[in-house]
From TrEMBL:
Protein's name according to its UniProt entry: Autophagy-related protein 27
Pfam family, one: ATG27
Regions that span the bilayer: 242-262
Signal sequence, start to end: 1-22
InterPro entries (alphabetical): Autophagy-rel_prot_27 (IPR018939), Man6P_isomerase_rcpt-bd_dom_sf (IPR009011), MRH_dom (IPR044865)
Amino acid sequence: MRIQSSGVTLLLSSVLPSLSAALTFDCSHINVDKYKYDFSPLSGVHELYHVNETETAVTNTTYVLNICKNLGSKAADRGDDGKCGQTKRICGFVNRHPTDGNGSQRFGFPIVGLDPMGGGSMEPEFTRLATIDPDTEGVRVKLAGGEFRGDDDEGKKKDAAAVIDFTCDPGRSGLEGLVTEEDSSDADEEKRRRDEKSRDGSLQFKSFELGEDDTYILKLDWRTRYACDDYQRGKQNNSNSWGFFTWMIIIVFLCVAAYLIFGSWLNYNRYSARGWDLLPHGDTLRDVPYLMKDWVRSVINTLQGSGSRGGYSAV
């Protein structure tokens, strides 16, 4: 059976964008101005809470994120609390209670991620923090792919994105104070208390507001040792040095093995040797234990001789 070229084209056009989009941001390989960063240790579903109290309402927003992978159905679709989309990496879930007790709202919205079918792009942008502030070390990551409708947007959704400042802090792994997906079933009051406890955590909420480019921007600050230039450089140097010694040991082992195999084959075919005689320089190898014993005895005698006291000998 022959497949029409138009069908193949349609199939490739639907598959290739998903594959290319999935490669637009890899948290373990971030290259900025010849500096390399690996944030894969920060992978996993984490939650961050922010409470905004006004005269008209109390708004509790839960930000759920996984910078390395899509959130999936469990983290992104929360039933009555709203749905965000399985192909998203950062979502927000709003629980708004008016002060008069009428018109409570629960809904979810995407901030960073791919289209529902896996297409599109997160449009990653990277900037070293040192270029913004010479006294700050780290990298700023901007990711897009979401949308949000604010109270003043007249029913129209606007683009949403996230700006995360990964700031160097040698004393932090980046996981301090984070709430995991398993804790997401807590009641609202418990979430508020947990939010107070996590105010000194490594991941901090800065703001979520409409930017100058008419895009809602979620700003986060993530303090971690993985954003330190010295940490990444030391990690790379250790990896390179260990790789060099590993290859050197392998090469030496292969050379010795080739020498023994070839020498044994040569002795077998030329002299019909057997046993120890097969090995090249077999006589020398057999004498090695005795040579070592003589060398040790010589060293001991030298040390004992240098420690003896001088004087007159009896005649």
